[in-house]
Amino acid sequence: MSMPNTTSDQVIVERPSESVAMVRLNRPQVRNALNLSLRRELASVFHLLSDDAAVRCVVITGDDKAFCAGADLREYVDASPTEILARNMHLLWGAIADCPKPVIAAVRGYALGGGCELAMHADIIIAGESAQFGQPEVRIGLMPGGGATQRLTWAVGKFAAMRMLLTGESISASEALSMGLVSTVVADDCVVPEALKLADKIAALAPLAVQLVKESVIESMNSPLDAGLRFERKAFQMLFSTPEKTEGIRAFLEKRKPVFSSVSHS
Question: How does pLDDT run across 134-174, given as a tens digit for each residue?
Fold first, then answer.
């Protein structure tokens, strides 16, 4: 069953097309800060979208003022280590990280702390000119807990990551682009349309090939080169058993657009 448009107090799920889902954070009064209930709802939505065979690409966004300004600190100020442990936030982040469909983050305004980490859970980041990225946790006596020390370092390298993580200072969209943190920068009012255009383009491609490309790139981040190459080689070989490979090549040879009817398997 395909997941329909849904609206809650904190998350809006739209289906701009049958094969694309857009997930919108909906806490504008606190710049879309992540409280525990929002994190749980996001995880639930991503589990459903991962299992929705019709969905081939997911866009996640906030509003024109903020993608996500980070964790809701009201839930942190008096929290003990055991309370934080019991929240199992790694499982909530994992629902996004493990989504087998390509995820595009459409970022306008603030993407700070957990918001920057949320954007880095995506596979592609489209940033508006107003976007600001940062990990300010050190300024309040904390450190990132949603993967920034790892994902930011993978994205921009040790020295740029250390500067952001150790100072807590934010960077502009143009600096994030030059560092390799975002995929492209566009005018603010073009961010969501550009993300949806890109999502439609990806959704029109062979879904199993797209899924295996994503898995192979993620594997490269978690494995030595030789292991990553073995994974890529096996994935490449496996695609020769699929109808979409035959359709894609025949369409190219016949100078027509391919029609991919197969769906990915999570």
Answer: 999 999 999 999 999 999 999 999 999 999 999 999 999 99
Pair (172, 240) in one structural domain: no
List pLDDT tens digits, range 183-231: 999 999 999 999 999 999 999 999 999 999 999 999 999 999 999 999 9
The answer to whether position 186 is within a domain reads yes
Q: Are 171 and 134 in contact (CB under 8 A)?
A: yes
42 and 58 part of one domain = yes
Helix (H) or strand (E) holding 21: strand 20-25
Which of 203, 221, 237 is the endpoint of a domain? Answer: 203
Are residues 235 and 183 part of one domain?
no
Alpha helix locations (H) across 52-99? 81-86, 89-97
- Residue in 21, 66, 69, 71 annotated catalytic: 71
Known catalytic residue at 79: no
Say yes or no: 39 and 27 in one domain.
Answer: yes
Which of these is catalytic: 43, 62, 111, 137? 137
265 pLDDT higher than 60: no
Q: pLDDT tier at 253 (50, 70, 90 boundaries)?
A: very high
Which member of 70, 109, 114, 128 is catalytic? 114
d(CA 90, CA 70): 16
Spatial distance between the Cα atoms of 256 and 177, rounded to a whole number of angstroms: 35
Are residues 249 and 133 located together in one domain of the fold?
A: no
CA gap 42, 34 in Å, rounded: 10
**117 included as an active-site residue:** yes
Domains contained in the chain, number: 2
Helix (H) or strand (E) holding 186: strand 184-186
Q: Which of 33, 105, 117, 131 is catalytic?
A: 117
